[in-house]
């Protein structure tokens, strides 16, 4: 199997975004807060690695079950990427899916036991269940599936804070103002991740409308029409622009980020967003929707790279 084929099956770029985002939040936000508060992290570096690994495995499981259930539509929408039935049978693909998912859940349970955080034992099975439900049922429902997978992407950021809640609470008692800034930053990035993902999901529905329609799916553009989908994309787009402007202003004037962060935000967040809108309004073919989806993924990466510029902890 070629490297490109393996990357298509595992969605390696997406997994890297998830893993890097959790590491950046941990080391660019929480660790500096702990340092000034004299608090030790709830998770050791090894335990945090296991937490990220569990997240990646459950996310990969979601991709695999999605491919298994979408074989017929994918034969129309992206025949070159269909692997179930070509590289392996459906039963073998299901076995791989269960192995990946159970591995992620087992690692999360081990990590939860190690740190005495039993609620982590519930989160990962719930996430795996929701991703399964999305693939077999909710994805076929207009907007509901889009919202679910977008919420999952936003919650990837919050998961780090949840796993660290004991150390977080102690740090908050020591440095309330700084902890509140960290929390607001978490919420801002979670909202950005949610919005970029929901826009990307809606664009992908437009890209896949032919195959989804022939398969009898009830996605938003099929049920309410292409123009309704585009109107909703514009709504989420402008919400993202307004949020980004407000977040950049807040970063510089309230949270004391470096002024270079503002320049970065304008050049690598706002301008690409405006370029996306121009591209979106001018073109409407399957190929251009695919390019828009890639641009939105790149925007997510640019958003994550904003984190190392954080200056809230510098006296």
Write out key terms for the chains shown.
80% helix; single chain; 315 residues; 14 helices
Topology of helices and strands:
Elements: H1 3-10, H2 12-37, H3 45-69, H4 71-77, H5 90-115, H6 120-136, H7 144-163, H8 165-174, H9 176-207, H10 209-214, H11 220-224, H12 226-253, H13 259-282, H14 286-304
| Gyration radius, rounded | 20 Å
Q: What is the CA-CA span between the terminal residues?
A: 52 Å
The chain-level structural class is: mainly alpha
The ordered H/E elements are HHHHHHHHHHHHHH
Largest sheet: none
Number of strands: 0
Mean pLDDT: 87
Percent helix range: over 70%
Identify the overall geometry: globular
Supply the number of helical segments: 14
Report low-confidence residues grouped into runs of 5 or more. none
- Relative strand content: under 5%
Commentary on this structure:
The protein has 315 residues and is mostly helical. The chain contains 14 helices and no strands. The protein has helices at residues 3-10, 12-37, 45-69, 71-77, 90-115, 120-136, 144-163, 165-174, 176-207, 209-214, 220-224, 226-253, 259-282, 286-304. Helix 12 runs antiparallel to helix 13 (259-282) and helix 13 (259-282) packs antiparallel against helix 14. The chain is globular, with a radius of gyration of 20 Å.
């Amino acid at each position: 199997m070629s490297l490109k084929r393996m990357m298509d099956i595992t969605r390696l770029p997406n997994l890297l975004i998830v893993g890097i985002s959790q590491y950046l939040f941990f080391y660019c936000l929480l660790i500096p807060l702990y340092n000034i508060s004299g608090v030790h992290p709830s998770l050791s570096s090894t335990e945090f690695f296991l937490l990220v690994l569990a997240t990646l495995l459950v996310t990969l499981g979601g991709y695999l079950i999605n491919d298994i259930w979408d074989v017929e539509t994918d034969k129309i929408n992206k025949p070159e990427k269909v692997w179930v039935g070509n590289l392996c049978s459906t039963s073998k693909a299901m076995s791989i899916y269960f192995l990946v998912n159970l591995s992620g859940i087992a690692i999360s349970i081990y990590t939860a036991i190690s740190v005495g955080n039993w609620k982590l034992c519930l989160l990962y099975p719930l996430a795996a269940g929701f991703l399964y439900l999305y693939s077999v049922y909710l994805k076929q429902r207009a907007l509901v599936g889009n919202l679910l997978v977008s919420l999952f992407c936003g919650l990837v950021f919050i998961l780090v804070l949840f796993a660290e809640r004991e150390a977080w609470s102690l740090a908050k008692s020591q440095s309330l103002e700084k902890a509140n800034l960290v929390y607001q930053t978490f919420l801002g990035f979670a909202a950005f991740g949610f919005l970029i993902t929901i826009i990307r999901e809606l664009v992908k529905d437009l890209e896949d409308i032919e195959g989804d329609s022939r398969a009898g799916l009830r996605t938003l553009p099929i049920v309410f029409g292409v123009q309704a989908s585009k109107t909703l994309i514009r709504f989420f787009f402008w919400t993202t622009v307004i949020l980004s402007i407000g977040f950049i202003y807040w970063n510089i004037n309230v949270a004391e980020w470096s002024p270079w962060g503002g320049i970065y935000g304008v050049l690598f967040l706002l301008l690409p967003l405006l370029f996306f809108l121009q591209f979106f309004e001018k073109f409407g073919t399957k190929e251009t929707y695919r390019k828009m989806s890639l641009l939105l993924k790149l925007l997510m990466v640019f958003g994550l790279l904003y984190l190392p510029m954080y200056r809230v902890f510098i006296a």
